[in-house]
Design a protein that fits this description.
With about 500 residues, the chain is of the alpha/beta class. It is built from 18 helices and 15 strands. The structure holds adenosine monophosphate.
Length: about 500
């Protein structure tokens, strides 16, 4: 399949060739003709699948007939609205609009909060066909009457599941109510909960379902493992892992903004170049942190889920969950940045007894057990398994970061289904076994195909049957010395 065969305009083909793309990704091959035909789409795709070009290219094609070089604002009404949950994602999508639309004279603009509203207002007043926006700031513009939706032909809701998590659905509904009824709507989401399906029902007409990854599936090339550790020793373990390995470009996830800053400062004190990215940082600080990480100046980027959403970091090989996410689906979002395009990646979670319930939810969602690896000197003690129940009852006390502008209360922490809790209780207490090479169990569905079909043979080989319980192995503190947990306090 080639981009030419998808029926794209020469101006778009030229831009695609400039970007260096030789063939469409699976989501692009499926979505582009459907969107060009004017149909609604419900798209299931993980980050890294090329979904942005999958909707931006056909959207540009549909609007190309309106392209005009006239300076009159009346000739440039808002015709397409792309809503994203975060500023970073809005910026990235906007960048794609500019990259793919560089030979089509349509005006585009990105609007998000946390920056001066005036330049956005001025640009909107001059007229702009394609607006990429975060919901909160877009509503600010609605309130000050700097935007009019009467001519909107296409609406795109990107990362709808994240919109839901961040409490943006009421804002989205307010925006939807202002749009013309006759329009094309596209909804993209990495995961599909009942709430997302409800939202899709309310905004899509006879949508074509396009799915390149099975719902809630994780990339096959990612190795998952977890280190049981006491809460108080987590940061020492993290520092130890970073000091005794040559891991480069490590994205570390934490649950709160405060925790992100504190951890980055701690790592710096330990001589590990680290920077943090979270919602309380200014746009400039976030961009600088990201740049430092991408350039290698900072080896570690500590991020909250909200801030990390939409980060486009190619070939990120290591993700460390310093804290497990509050919502199990976020585990999939977090590791969506590693193992892209058939490359290998690893996701390591530091799990304290109180997080055992969350771990069980994640394993259930990704349909596989996560291998437990004890790190010598950091074993959590025999109470690790015993504390699981207590942890499940008491968890959910710290609040996840919420982005500015979100107005809903976060969802209450999920409780473990009864059957699952019982199953957990029956697990034997933490015990070392012989080292075992981590192997992923065979999935009961076809995994998503990366768009670079170069998967190494070991990833495609049939998987052996697994033992019923999770293997645990001790590793010699990941190469190198063996400090006591409190040594670097
Ligand atoms: P996305 O899933 O939209 O965030 O895209 C992930 C990455 O894939 C981005 O860095 C794109 O530049 C890249 N990409 C998109 N389409 C293609 C393509 N057809 N061939 C190669 N790379 C692509």
């Amino acid at each position: 399949m080639t981009f030419e065969e998808l029926g794209l305009l020469p101006e778009l083909l030229k831009a695609v060739a400039d970007a260096g793309y030789t063939e469409p990704t699976p989501i692009q091959a499926q979505a582009i003709p459907v969107v060009i035909a004017g149909k609604d789409v419900m798209g299931g795709a993980q980050t890294g699948t090329g979904k942005t070009a999958g909707f931006v290219l056909p959207l540009l094609q549909r609007l190309a007939r309106h392209a005009s070089t006239s300076p009159s604002p009346a000739r440039h009404p808002v015709r397409a609205l792309i809503l994203t949950p975060t500023r970073e994602l809005a910026m990235q999508v906007h960048e794609s609009v500019q990259t793919y639309g560089k030979y089509v004279p349509l005006r585009d603009l990105v609007v998000y909060g946390g920056v001066d509203i005036k330049p956005q207002t001025e640009a909107l007043r001059k007229g702009v066909e394609i607006v990429v926006a975060t919901p909160g700031r877009l509503l600010d513009h609605v309130q000050q009457k700097s935007v009019n939706f009467n001519s909107v032909e296409v609406l795109v809701l990107d990362e709808a599941d994240r919109m839901l998590d961040m409490g943006f659905i009421p804002d989205i509904k307010r925006i939807l109510a202002m749009l013309p009824k006759e329009r094309q709507s596209l909804l993209f989401s990495a995961t599909f909960s009942e709430e997302i399906k409800k939202l899709a029902d309310s905004m899509l007409k006879a949508p074509v379902l396009i799915e390149v990854a099975r719902r809630n599936a994780v990339t096959e090339t990612v190795t998952h493992r977890m280190h049981p550790v006491a809460q108080d020793h987590k940061r020492q373990l993290l520092a130890h892992m970073l000091k005794t390995s040559s891991l480069k470009q490590v994205l570390v996830f934490v649950g709160t903004k405060f925790g992100a800053s504190r951890l980055a400062v701690y790592l710096e004190k330990q001589g590990i170049e680290a920077t943090a990215i979270h919602g309380d940082k200014s746009q400039q600080q976030r961009s600088e942190a990201l740049e430092a990480f991408k350039s290698g100046a900072a080896r570690v980027l500590v991020a909250t889920d909200v801030a990390a959403r939409g980060l486009d970091i190619d070939d990120l090989p290591h993700v460390i969950n310093y804290e497990l996410p509050h919502v199990p689906e976020d585990y999939i979002h977090r590791i969506g940045r590693t193992g892209r395009a058939g490359k290998e990646g690893d996701a390591t979670s530091l799990v304290c007894p109180e997080e055992r319930g969350k771990l069980a939810e994640i394993e259930k969602l990704i349909k596989r057990p996560i291998e437990q690896v004890l790190v010598q000197g950091f074993e959590p003690g025999p109470d690790f398994d015993a504390a699981a129940d207590k942890g499940r009852r008491g968890r959910g006390s710290s609040r996840p970061e919420r982005s500015e502008g979100s107005r809903e209360k976060s969802a209450p922490p999920r409780r473990e289904p009864r059957g699952r809790r019982d199953e957990e209780r029956e697990r034997p207490p933490s015990r070392r076994v012989e080292p075992a090479k981590p192997k992923l169990p065979k999935l009961d569905f076809d995994p998503s195909k990366p768009y670079e079909p170069k998967v190494s043979p070991q990833n495609t080989a049939p998987e052996p049957k697994r033992a019923h319980h999770r293997p645990k192995r001790a590793v010699p503190a990941l190469l190198g010395g063996m400090p006591k947990p409190d040594q670097d306090k």
